[in-house]
Amino acid sequence: MKAMTSLFEACRRHAEHFGAVLRTANTRYLASENAPPDGLVLFDRERQNIEAAWRWISENAEDPRAMELCAEFPNFGPYILSMRLPARAWQSWLHSALQASGQCGAKRTQASHLGNLGVTHRRLGNVDQAIAAFEAQIALARELQLPQLEATAEGNIGLCHADRSDFRKAIEHQEINLRISREIGFRRGEAIALGNLGNAYADLGESERASRAYEDQLAIVRVIGDRQGEANALGNLGLVAIDVRDHVHAIEYFGQQLSLCREIGDRIGEGNALFSFGRAYDLAGDVARAIECTEEGIAILDETSHPLANEAREFFSKLVARQ
């Protein structure tokens, strides 16, 4: 019995240590200006140990000594984990952590996991489940008086409606997101809301309103140093350029987006940018270059389990047929 207790404590200390490593990696990732970011280098080096720690935690989550760690562990590195783990693996982590946080009565942690789970459901194409997670997050955010979290969840629900092509409903939720973000001085949230509004206007064919929203977004993210947001805004401006058949500016925007995504280690963004490059080069009449970029994009989108991979494959097939 004593030996089993000692083994349990040794495993718990191992898990706590690599939870701290994960937190450090996440912090370094957010602060790094290197390419690749220091945090990703640290995570990749210690990935086996971090994943081994999580396996032990999740397998022992019913034990009170591991339950609290199970509730908190994914929050130590949400940015890195959402990028590096396959979507279904990340979903599994979040389900376990959500259950543990509920058992611990950690409502703020629950709210955080609900948001990340909603994002992951949406990434996997499960829109109904995503909306349910975000609505539950909003209820907790209001109970806990967390307006920033409420604004973010409203924006995410807007994205879900956009996935269903209900763009007017999407705009309604993004305007709530924008209003709350401005009321509380949440500049990053304001930028995200503007970007999402731009997307909805673009989908409705209102290119001028979309461009204005993206330009406002780009101005904010450059001021606050949000490089991920900058990459997103540049990509969106490129897509509007494609809509108005301006391949010159589209290629310019996508080039800046691709460089930024590679610098910050955003594999999903890199895949998106390469697919977009394919569309821009096709518009320019350079089918060979379009095929090359699209094929590279598909490989990355498949690697990250992104639903856009299917659309990219269809586009690729049409390009090859025309070659």
From TrEMBL:
The record ties this protein, via InterPro entries, to: TPR-like_helical_dom_sf, TPR_rpt
Q: Which residues form a coiled coil?
A: none
Would you tell me the protein name for this molecule? Tetratricopeptide repeat protein
